[in-house]
Batch of 4 targets.
Target 1
Amino acid sequence: MMQIPVLDAIIQGSTRPTIPFVMSKNDGSIIVCTNGNFTGQRRKLEARGKGVAIAGSISVTDGPNGEITMSYDDADVATAGRILFQITGVISGGTYIRFFIQPIDEAI
């Protein structure tokens, strides 16, 4: 069973971190991300359904080493709760998906 990484909690509406990733296959080998096309979606972990597109951006930072980053936008951190993010990369004819959970604590 796949373990979904859980990131450190942030505060609802706070300064948004940039999240680095290394895209790799199940065997641990690096996926070269140069010229890849990346999209992201988010939804509350407890919810069902497809989710919504992230408002932030995903960029390749070191394609040959499989490194990408995702930057949040205001809309991505507006809702408190445990948010499931899905990053999908279409790279050299293959589709690769990564998940992570971002806890967002409610601001008072």
Target 2
Amino acid sequence: MKNSLLKKIDEVARKYQETKEKRYKDEWYKLIKKFSDENEDKFFQDLDSTKCFKNAIRKKAFTAKEVKDNTNYIMYMCSNSQYDWFKAKRTKKSYKVERI
């Protein structure tokens, strides 16, 4: 179930990126909320994502320039007690970075 929900989240995010239709954005938020509710004891959104980015840059997962790249910027996705996850906008490359 978890993998199919994650696939659906990615699918809806791609549709929104392609069309910019509000209905896809709204659906994406609903799916993220559902995933979060089902995994609230495992995953969370760090309230200080700047700290997460600084940690990832310090560990050379990616550069500050990549974070600010308008065509393929890096987005913070979520965290658990051990890792932070990020994703590149256009290439969809994922980054898993050990937390401080």
Target 3
Amino acid sequence: MGSGHPGGSAGDYERCTSQVFKNQSDKNLARNMQCRTKVRENNELESYRPKLKDMERQLANFETDSGDWRRASFRTRSKWMALSNSWTAKR
């Protein structure tokens, strides 16, 4: 115990610390690979951004147009019912 390292020899301490650093290094390498994969995926998806904006614009136009269609359809039905009722009343 004269090595200055509690609980063991200097060799034990060095082996233990080198194993800790190796484990951390392995974890960092794995995380780095995951990060690179994610960056590659994000770059690939980025190419779709203009198309997504176009699709969002088309969807917004469709929602606006379909709202107008429902209102127009209701107006058309109301006019048709009014004409139908007036025609029936004349008979």
Target 4
Amino acid sequence: MKIKLKGKEYTIREFFKRWKWGIENLTPRQRLASKLQGSIGMVCAFIFASTMIYITGTWYYIPIFVFAGWLQVLDIINTWQQYKLSKSIELNIGSTSKTFEEAITEKEEE
């Protein structure tokens, strides 16, 4: 079975080899960016949950919900600050991330 990705076909073994390499070699900035994207999903979940609390009239969940929402807001602020800092550091130092093909060629040359 082959998996088509960006116009190329890969076997399942090749696909998971590339996927594993990609996960292991994420830069801190990429990790923070994906954490921020996940936080957007959490905000949507909080909006949905607050709508359901309003509709069903289960007001006794509000203290738990407010506390969890506050923690989520603090986490988003913290992650955003880390992201901005890592972005400025990467711009000053320069990115050291490599593509999968570059890493494989470098490994074969050794």
